[in-house]
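Notebook B, p. 112. Complex prediction, attempt 2.
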Amino acid sequence: MEIWADVAKLIGAGLAIGLGALGPGIGIGILGMGAMNALGRNPEARGAIMTNMILAIAFAEAVAIYALVVAILLIFVA
Amino acid sequence: MTEKSYRGGLLKIVVLAIALFAMIIISFIGSEVGSGIVGSKPISFLNVEAPKYHPAPERPFHNLPITNTMITAWISIVVLGGLFFFGTRNMKLVPTGLQNFLELIVEAAANFIEDPAGEKHGRWFFSVCTTIFLFVVGNAWLSLIPGFETISVNGEPLFRNANTDLNVPAALAVVSFCFVEYWGFKAKGIAYLKTFFHFGPLWQAIKFILAGNIKAGAGGLLNGFVAVFAGLLEILSHLIRMMSFTFRLFGNMTAGMILVMIMLFLIPWVLPTIFYGMEAFFGFVQAMIFGGLTLGFACAAVMEEE
């Protein structure tokens, strides 16, 4: 019985981070696309686009980080 | 620049790149995982210990309730305090040296804050947002100093990045939450409660209905319920905000720590340096997000409606 609890933990952690990284990955891709489009239209605004893109990417990435926290908690704490 | 020296410079870069690449390959083959794949014996000095991660901070001194993250938080307070204390002795009109550097930071922060908040509110927000930023970035960058998580006392590491202790981001999030609500009350007085309990439109609609104007009342009733519901959602969002603040910082810093440890374990040479630099960058970005989000929510709290 014990071993099944461990198996469930590992599967759960893998699914948590795997599925949790899916959305942010798509989001960061869209963000990059938007930034590239903006850069193509207006190359002078490079600095402003860069800062805002990095900020927005950090927000999208935060969602993946939540999934990572769940995975860490599952493996090390639960 | 002549043709020959240009070629010499290019040659140097190519040789350096090949040497670094060779170091990566050698260290991968020599490490524990790589030697298992290749089927050779691991080289002793490349055999890094597998990373161990404890979510809770360790206590290096067994009989004292002092965790290693507390020690680093104190160090970062002392470093920041000392920096600003000694930088602001003998202030000169034309700054030099340390004073110049500090003025650069403070001025950049003041511009960043006054841009969305305006001068009056910017002055309220400045101290708290800048302190949060400096504390988080101080913790993050101090933990990049070699010796963190490797110097150990009683078998536990003596120093550990304070942001990887869940309590530190949680404390900062609570401080940020309290100050946002305080500023809201300070700017709008008791009317700030209207953000959360917005019964005005509902009363209006009920009054209309009681006065016999059913048609105007029925439409207003729906709007009234929506306003009440939006107020309740606002309460929820203010509370959930604290949690997302906490886990964003904690998760990012913890993930960075584990990432560097795992890269060191897999490929001990050259490659971890890249992730090390990335950690320095992400420490700065996360600090800016923590301070900037506090600023953004504070601006939303003090903003006049229409």
